[in-house]
Fold this protein.
Amino acid sequence: QVQLVESGGDLVQPGGSLRLSCAASGSISRIYYMGWYRQAPGKQRELVATISSGGSTNYADSVKGRFTIYRDNSKNTVYLQMNSLKPEDTAVYYCNARVTTTHYWGQGTQVTVSP
């Protein structure tokens, strides 16, 4: 099995920054895809950012220009640098990874943006 452990969620003021981390461990052969999703209260889970093993990235329009996804393949870790945070960014952020043919999810980390 593969475990994903997220960290970095916190309470921050609007305009502030956070960096989320997601470390994969366990029986790992190849990680083809890693990404971040988020779910706000009363809303559907949405894609935030993804990165392929080759480094190709994509972002939700709502975060483009503010968030950056990074991947450290040697550490099996993906990061999400979040700048210029807005109250609407408040959500539980979930890490996702495709290891071989299986998708894995982390438990989520809470990000709250409030004055």
